[in-house]
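Session log. Operator J.P. requested a structure for one protein chain; no other inputs attached. Running the standard single-chain path with token output.
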Amino acid sequence: MLTVSNITKSFGDRTLFSDVSFTLTGRDRLGIVGTNGSGKTTLLDIIAGRTDCDSGDVFIQKGASIGYLEQNQSLNPENDLLSEVARARSLAQRLEHKRQLIHENLAVTTDPDEQRELLAELGEIETHYEHSGGYTLEYEAKTILAGFGFGESDFKRPVSEFSGGWVMRAGLARLLLSEPDILFLDEPTNYLDLDAVVWLEQFLRNYAGAVLLISHDRTFLNNTATKIIALEPSQAKLYHGNYINYLMVREKERETIEATIKNQERFIDSEQRFIDRFRAKNTKATQVQSRIKRLEKMERVTEARKEKTVRLSIPPSPRCGKNVINLNKIGFGYDDNEFLYRNLDLILLRGDKVALVGPNGAGKTTLLKLLAGILSPAEGIRTLGHNVRGVYYAQFQTEQLADQNTVLAELRRAAVDENDERLRTVLGAFLFSGDDVSKKVAVLSGGEKARLALAKLLLRPANFILMDEPTNHLDIPSRDVLVDALSSYDGTLCIVTHDRDLIDKTANKIIEVNNGAVTVYLGNYSDYRYKKEQESAAAAKYIAVPDSVDSPNRRELDKERKRREGELRNELHQKTKHLKNRIGKIEKEIKVFEARITEIEAVLADPSSCEDQKLFNDMLNEYENLKNRKEHAEEEWLEISEEIEGIKEEVYRNNEE
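Structure written below.
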């Protein structure tokens, strides 16, 4: 399908990569990985014929079609979404094209295994072709658009009404619908929510063509790639398998190189000792000269230069109250007539590591801003706990950097009282060393700006960190370091991200945001997905046939589904209502405790309170007693919440059986 032979590319004195070679067959999914600036996009552009290389060749099978995901989509803003996406080739054209391509491959291949695979694929296409009257391009377009989060009401809306991120999704949908023989995807998950990323993974695994993709999402690469081409400082090398397999093989290679270096050093040391000892003896002259020549001709094994990585260390968090933040009956909307949230109640406790998940537009970033105090609620009360110090990392944090500042001056804005030595040390930890600190922000790459923004955020100790898409623009090694740092962070964390690896390794709670409602799930993202699959499996038994199918039994099936869903809700209500009532009472008790604790703290802070020693001691005892009762109440709240989750799982599991 595609052959790359000895590709080399340089910019000025810097060689991005040299002698890159590999082949791509019809069902390969090749992931291109490397640090920011290693030349991943340049390599993809060269293979796609969009950029010239210095030397080498790219051979693409005659007649093979190519599809490239453009960062700037060329969709007609006046057309409705469905018709614009459906401008891709018709189904019959695509099937005929694939038939011809397989026949050409069969004519040239002599590999029995490949012949069997091609014949099996040809049989599937022939069957599909014969029965293609039951399929329509519009149905396929709707299926792909639904996978990317578009609803039925979006299909007839003009493209001009969608934001840039949604237009990117529409462009990707049209590209996938066209089914090119080779797909070129540069960071395809950037504008997708988690559900859409999972859907795209499944689509690519079943895709009938070859795929070349660049991604900084290790989970996405693990679930899609069958080969990895790694652009490293010393070489570009092909590895078979997914990203995890690449890491394992590379580590074994490094261990082998290290062992070889040690053995070679021992050999050289032994030879040199012999030379030094017998150099002056005539009887050993021949042996000495032989060993000298052997050492001169020996090819020394050297360890590959390792890329620098961010050395991220989050300062210890100041001690704070167990209740970090409480949202009580919060109402908020960007339109006064339509609230996104109404009567929202949410409590985050000390040590919570929370990930907000849900479809794009559900209100995750809005909720994060309400928690951070960036947005003020129209209704309800936002209460921070005792001594809570929060910091907020916005999705577009890099845009808040001042372009005219140097790197050092920009960091100084976050800590005016810190000396330059301390600031340079912090910048060095984020890979800004030497003259880098004098660079203007305007000339920094996206990855460098992201590192600078993180350095500003984490310069001061905080016990409540809120982050919106913190891994944007970070390469995989930098993401790994951020994941490790947040995993070991001892404060409270709340993040919005589509990086499942980050959620899995940091979160102990998942909060699902959808249609103004929040649902708390204990555990990480894998636990959350398991629970959602259990819920879906229970509900799927009662779901009617797809909307695209015209069935005379639809009404009866829908009635049955709604009846069973009602029974599930009623069963859950009956089994959990006493627990929910208790939670309501506990929350009221906690509010009373907090109000009285605040009153006593104000009195005790007054120096005159010490004049009446008995009164002072009584209030101090009451204060300690209230704190203990509040802590016990919070622990009971957590236990009951976990019990409710357990009941939910049991109900869904029993309904499955």
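Operator note: DSSP finds 19 helices and 18 strands in the chain.
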